[in-house]
Amino acid sequence: MDLVFYDFETTGKEPHWDQILQVGATKVSKEFHEIDTFELRSRLKPGLIPSPFALSVNNTDYTKLIEADCSHYEMLRKMEDKFTKWSPSIFVGYNSISFDEEFLRNSLFRALLDPYLTSKNNNNRADLLELLRTVDFFFPDTINVPINKKNKKTFKLDQIAPANSITHLAHDAFGDVIATKQLAQLISKRKPTFWQSFLEGSNKSLVYKVLSEEKMVFSCQTYYGKTTAISGSFLLNHPVYKFPVIFDLNFDPSELVELSIRELKDVYTGGQRFLKFVKANKGPILLKKNQIESSWFFNSISINEFQKRSEILANATTFKQNLASMLMDIADEDKQDKEMSGSQEDLMAEETLYTGGFPNHRDQQLKQWFRDENWLSRYDLCQQFSDKRLSYFGLRLIYEECPEILPLSVRDNINLSVANQLKSLNKEKWKTCDDFYKEIEIIENDPNTKAGEFLFELNRIGKYFNETYGEKSTKNKE
Predict the structure, then answer these.
(1) Is residue 65 within a helix (H) or strand (E), and if so which, with residue range?
(2) Residues facing 211 on adjacent strands
(3) DSSP annotation of 99
(4) What confidence tens digit (pLDDT) does each residue in 361-375 have?
(5) Residue 387, helix vs strand vs coil
(6) Domains of the chain with bracketed CATH
(7) Residue 247 belongs to what H/E stretch?
């Protein structure tokens, strides 16, 4: 399968509220021969305030931000068309599963397009950052990983690329794509079996296949910058969430297999987390024993003991049944806790990609018509959605792209809503004008930041917001 390396530059860190400013992507063969490229930049959406920190990092000046020829919706449509033509492929990014993929999905969701573009139509997705962490953990001499000021390894792309003699334009979407592709090519040559596991991990069915066939698998997890290994044996699929559950072989199953459901639950919730979960749809990298036999890690574990433990688990049918019941109980309790706390009450439409359910058949059809019609017809379609989120997104798209066709009362209501959001002095989920000026003040008062050189552009952008939204801000009444 061909590979698509892609990257986004954005207005900030929040996929529900920020926007993609620049897309960079290249499609290559499995031998890394270039097939096609795509690069596009959009201007800022009306009603959105960016982060000055983000703009200074990705070097987005006034001209790029305000005067770019392409609107955000136009950019998304062109990107969607290109990615669809490139399908099926494995979509690879750098820290993409947690960042770029979330921006992609949420942006397409709000644009009434298919949010699951990179995981449908036989596409797969993978994150090169996880491969670099995994390779470095087991075989730390494979690549050069720089050390930061805190004397810790850093995998930031703008530092690890030059540490491996890769020159690129950092924090530019296409520049970062080139660096990601070259790092991938480097790993594929130096650790080809790891590269193969990386590709297999992008395919959910192959993940299940490896887990079912191997008595033991090895992988890595990273929390707060610290990477550790997991040595595990597959037990079952989660009874509610359906993802694979593996037993951590650092624990002795002989001490657990005879316990009742209640006793297992007490041990597990009491801190002995002997179960690990594999997110099969997020590109897990599962290694076999022969892939790590020459690593320092293999010499640090008791492999014979691990094999004995995996054999105990293979025959522990009642234990697995009890674990399934335990996980069901925990899932039910979590659901009840969420219902009791009313955690859904404060969610806004922009935050409901994963919680609001899928559109029904009629709404899916209306979405397709919305995609194909002119703006005037799109307004009529907005009145027909049964899912109020889709009506809201449709009206906001018209407001951003072709506001003159909106009835004056509708346009005034959206203008008022936008003004209240952006001029708020409260701590909001989105960036406000007040947040923008406060970030500029931080940059001005920090003599060590490189962003100081960008202040002229930031102040010019700030002046534009003053002229567009007015200088007065309002604090919501309690």
Answers:
(1) helix 62-66
(2) none
(3) I
(4) 999 999 999 999 999
(5) coil
(6) 3-190 (3.30.420.10), 208-341 (3.30.1520.20), 360-406 (no CATH)
(7) strand 244-248
